[in-house]
């Protein structure tokens, strides 16, 4: 993926003192992070802004010998949290986030559309089929972690459109959408 031209602009890496310029700067960083995660289908980010599992750090640009300091990274991630563009990954003990280039309601609607398009309504479908099955390959949610799928599918449950099925360990494993 080629990154936008602003990614090579040295002042992007230094927190700007003027609030208006800093807000635009943070917007630029958020746009870079969201676009990168969407194109590369990377779902997870740690508290230092490093994409997992490949440990890709967009906040460091060796070509221009610049990097963003941890305080500013935290400010960018805090804005993303408040804008619901990242959410905590409560599935593990680490301090990681799921990155969302769509909001949770939009993801739920997209998965509902997949159920309708593939004629899966009123059938039990596993989370594996949704995230890794052959019928979801060309859908944007393909490869999404099952914990994030579970969180998104809870929205369909709240809408009265679905029931989640659990295994013997009380883990969400499948869903039936009506």
TrEMBL record:
Keywords: Protein transport, Transport
Any one Gene Ontology BP term: protein transport to vacuole involved in ubiquitin-dependent protein catabolic process via the multivesicular body sorting pathway
Top-rank taxon: Eukaryota
A Pfam family that the UniProt record links to this protein: ESCRT-II
Annotated Gene Ontology cellular component terms: ESCRT II complex
An annotated Gene Ontology molecular function: protein homodimerization activity
InterPro entries with a match to the protein in the record: ESCRT-II_cplx_Vps25-sub (IPR008570), ESCRT-II_cplx_Vps25-sub_N (IPR014041), WH-like_DNA-bd_sf (IPR036388), WH_DNA-bd_sf (IPR036390)
Gene3D superfamilies in UniProt: Winged helix' DNA-binding domain. Chain C. Domain 1, Winged helix-like DNA-binding domain superfamily/Winged helix DNA-binding domain
Family of the protein in this entry: Belongs to the VPS25 family.
The protein's name: ESCRT-II complex subunit VPS25
Organism in which the protein naturally occurs: Maudiozyma exigua (Yeast)
Taxonomic lineage from the root: Eukaryota, Fungi, Dikarya, Ascomycota, Saccharomycotina
């Amino acid at each position: 993926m080629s990154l936008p031209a602003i990614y090579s602009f040295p002042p992007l890496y230094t927190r700007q003192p003027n609030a208006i310029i800093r807000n635009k700067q943070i917007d630029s960083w958020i746009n870079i992070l969201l676009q990168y995660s969407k194109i590369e289908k990377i779902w997870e980010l740690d508290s230092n802004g490093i994409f997992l599992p490949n440990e890709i750090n967009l906040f460091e640009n060796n070509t221009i010998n610049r990097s963003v300091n941890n305080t500013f990274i935290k400010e960018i991630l805090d804005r993303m949290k408040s804008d619901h563009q990242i959410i905590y990954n409560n599935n593990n003990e680490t301090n990681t986030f799921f990155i969302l280039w769509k909001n949770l309601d939009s993801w739920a609607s997209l998965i509902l559309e997949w159920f309708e398009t593939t004629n899966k309504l009123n059938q039990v479908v596993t989370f594996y089929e949704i995230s890794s099955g052959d019928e979801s390959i060309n859908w944007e949610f393909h490869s999404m972690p099952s914990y994030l799928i579970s969180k998104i599918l809870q929205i369909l449950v709240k809408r009265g459109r679905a029931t989640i099925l659990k295994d013997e360990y009380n883990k969400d494993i499948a869903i039936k959408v009506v």
